[in-house]
Amino acid sequence: MSETKKLTRKEKFSAAPVNNKKENSIQENNNWSNYYVWIVAFIAGLLYFNTVNFDYALDDYASILENRSTQKGDLKEIFKTSYRYGSYMSSDELYRPIPKLLFAKQWAFSPNNAHVGHWMNVCLYAFLAIVVFSFCKRILKGNLLYSFLACLLFISFPIHTEVVANIKSVDEILAMLFGFLALNKLLDYLSGKKIFSAIMAILFFFLSLLCKESSITLLAVFPLLVYYFGDEKFKENIFVFLAFIGITVFYFLIRSNVYGIVPIGTLPSSSDNLLVKVLGSLERYTTAIYYLGLYLFRIVVPYGLTFDASFPQLSVVGISSIEFLLAFVVLSSLFAIAIYGVVKKELYGFALMFFFITASVSSNIFTLIGTQYGERLMFMPSFGIAFSAIACISKFNFKQAPALLAIVVLIYGGITINRNNVWENNYTLYCSGLISAPNSARTNYYLGNYLIKESNLAGKSQPDQNKILNEGISYLKKSVQLTPYFADSWDQMGLAYMRLKEYDSSKIAFVNALSCNSNDSKINNNYGNLLFNTSQPDSALFYFEKAFSLKADYTDAINNIGSVYGNKGEFQKALTYFEKSYAVDPNNIMTNRFLGMTWKNMGNAMMAQQYLLRAESLSAN
Q1: What is the largest CA-CA distance in the chain?
Q2: Which of 1, 143, 181, 369 is the most buried (most CB within 10 A)?
Q3: Predicted structure pTM score
Q4: How far is CA 404 from CA 116, 398, 400, 401, 552, in A?
């Protein structure tokens, strides 16, 4: 009779039958997770598929189409200069090298092809949907249905059209993409305490900052995430948070000191942000609170969406106004609910606090930014609204909620696909602005400015050109009627009258523009052109030189200075300025042409031919 061997605890565990039912359940859950991931990515792409054949629009010009730095694609220059460096704009205090690098690569791959940029936006948006779904799944403890619904609700918000349908706004997509990758890696660290996950979280956060400055608000989200999903090991977590602060300090050193970017704190123009005019008053805060309430309303109820809502479409409101009072009651109630939820560690508290934190900078409540209103600014904050809705459904177990949400998403999706069409090109966008915001000085300016552009007039008969110029002037006139201190509208009106050869009216418009903003390089240069065209070269030279002093890389102004000297027969001086212009932008057609003509006038046929042939080659391309 053989003796039965007694098994140890370890052997008993090893010999125990496998729970196939549990393993199958996990496998099935993973399979469903894969399905959901691809579904949200597909729907995100589908919502914006009709944008892939759109043209450049709005800020795409300053960032890509009219930006020689982007087109040059010099990596060092991109990382050592401000975001809009290389465009006609005098200056900016934005440092976003990663989006600009992406634009440069798109241009190198296929110059002057907006379709590449639109495809990239759609693909990145689909990838963002996958990352957001992963984050939701983590904090919803693996609940796939609610994670799917939260992600679906977020990606279908029609307020996102300004981001995905506009190439320039890839900075918003990238900032959120890297930000949520950082959040996911921080969750990895909190669950496993692996230092590599913490390092990756810090790296992704740094990349998010390099895409858009408002990502700094995530610094307040990180401790909130630790509070909700971390353990009690305070020392380990505080070191990670200090590392996030350290990389932020490093970012600002790069931004402000190393490359000499304009320091933070410079006030924007009052034509860009009306709140500058009421700085220091109570109305500055009541108006900002009203605007935040309006953002919230348009996230949930996509009525009145517009690419611009400048003064006086949106005006200052006082403490007794119904707009402020309604916004204050709603926002303060939600904030109180958020505080209560955070104390109780309820997910709706995290979601609402995420909205308030990430919207804080863009709201103009705490600091004034470069615009009073922009729907793109609610891109990341809107996630908090979507997730708070799902968190409430999850907590109270509304059984009919998935079906109702499906209907909401279908409605949102239809509105999104339809609204995309306004971003097809500048003309469709600006015309839509006159419908959605007819009393905005800027929407009237945009359409007027578009109509009078030489590119819009090219190929048309003189009577047709005059008709279009007068139509453009009518919109510019309305713009200055709405906002008399809007220098850009006066400036473009001066250009339009100059093209009509109505020089007296042109002078009046330019003088008004300079009285609004005498330190705008573009206005000084344009007024100099008028003076030059009316045989006042010495006066013209004064304004050209002032434009050059205000913007040292302004090739139009440099060439104009050279032209004045060339017209006087001072060819050596003219050559000096044309060479300065060439050093800034060797691919400038007019610069090469001016150099060729100047060398010809100086009797150097070989040098003249070299530059004139180069000008022809650049023009042909």
Answers
A1: 124
A2: 181
A3: 0.88
A4: 37, 10, 6, 5, 58
